[in-house]
Design brief:
By secondary structure, the chain is of the alpha+beta class. Among the domains are: 160 residues, Cytidine Deaminase, domain 2, CATH 3.40.140; 33 residues. 34% of the residues lie in helices and 22% in strands. The protein is built from six helices and 14 strands. Strand 4 and strand 5 form a beta hairpin. The longest helix is centred in the last third of the chain and has 52 residues. It starts with 25 loop residues before the first strand and ends with a helix. The N terminus is likely disordered.
Length: 309
């Protein structure tokens, strides 16, 4: 075996010499066939990365469930080639469960990274490690300065870096290569919507017959047209309104009669009082007809005061 002078044996007495970087296997397949049901992100030089919609949904759901901490994972995919150039098809993701995750940062150890890479190779035996990804919490889907520095370690042109933030718009951003070139979403389909969990409850059993407790008769449940229900409700409201108006009118009539009677009584009382208080109504007795006028006037004044009292 021919040795490369640039490599040094790992042990002094060992004949093992690394052969260098392994060439990534490329599959020749048209990109239109390889990425149906995918979201496509394109670079300036025509490079494209296709990520399945269900994988993005899974990533967003995992990031949402890990709140308030961030998440870290690796991308498994295929590096493909066709007449238009290089493109990558993502197969899935493997989460780094042993990473140190916090609300504003996430870090992985060497042992955790090796374990995650081994899991990726076992689960996606038909793919390879094509990049990494992590999530943000309420700060937007974009690469920070630290993220760009980490992306420099992925020096292959097809290496991807994905960042998601389920609480921002847009919620997914894809970068490529050591220069962290941001790829543009060129998918013709509708934009990726947030995952919505829909709970389907079993339908309640339909009752064919309801027994009346008061009459003991059976009332069958029937389907009634909504228009009929609306008309019935309007008629019920109209009848109730008319009945209320009649009751109010009857009460007002009774109140008017009572007010009229009270007025008549007060009028009669005031008339009687005026007759009693009038000086002409006070006639002196026959025994006082021969007294002087001054005594007669005094008698009439005293009778008027008594009547007023």
């Amino acid at each position: 075996m021919k040795r490369d002078a640039s490599f040094i044996p790992l042990r002094p007495n060992s004949d093992f010499v690394p052969l260098g970087r392994v060439t990534v296997q490329r599959i020749r397949i048209p990109r239109g066939i390889a990425r149906s049901g995918y979201r496509v992100y394109r670079g300036k030089d025509g490079f494209e990365a296709a990520i399945p919609v269900h994988v993005l949904d899974r990533i967003l759901t995992g990031a949402r469930n890990s709140y308030p901490n961030e998440t870290l994972w690796r991308l498994a995919g295929k590096v493909c080639d066709d007449s238009e150039g290089l493109h990558v098809v993502v197969l899935g993701v493997v989460r780094d469960c042993d990473a140190n995750c916090g609300p504003q940062s996430v870090a992985s150890s060497n042992a955790s990274a090796v374990s995650t890479r081994d899991t990726l190779r076992r689960v996606y035996s038909d793919g390879t490690d094509v990049g990494w990804g992590h999530s943000h919490v309420h700060c937007g889907a974009y690469f920070s300065a630290t993220d760009r520095e980490n992306q420099r370690h992925w020096d292959r042109p097809h290496s991807l870096g994905v960042v998601v933030d389920p609480w921002s718009k847009p919620n997914v951003a894809v970068y490529r290569g050591p220069e962290s070139e941001r790829l543009v979403d060129v998918t013709e389909a509708a934009p990726l919507r947030e995952t919505e969990v829909e709970i389907q409850r079993p339908d309640a059993p339909q009752r064919t017959q309801v027994r009346s407790k008061s009459f003991g008769s059976g009332i069958r449940q029937r389907n009634v047209h909504p228009v009929v229900v609306t008309v019935f409700a309007l008629l019920t409201m109209f009848v109730a309104f008319e009945w209320g108006i009649r009751v109010v009118r009857k009460d007002l009539g009774r109140l008017d009669d009572q007010v009229r009677l009270i007025g008549q009584k007060q009028s009669a009382t005031s008339t009687n009082r005026r007759h009693m208080a009038s000086p002409t109504s006070v006639e002196p007795p026959a025994c006082l007809l021969d007294v002087p006028d001054i005594a007669l006037e005094a008698y009439r004044a005293s009778q008027s005061r008594v009547a007023n009292e």
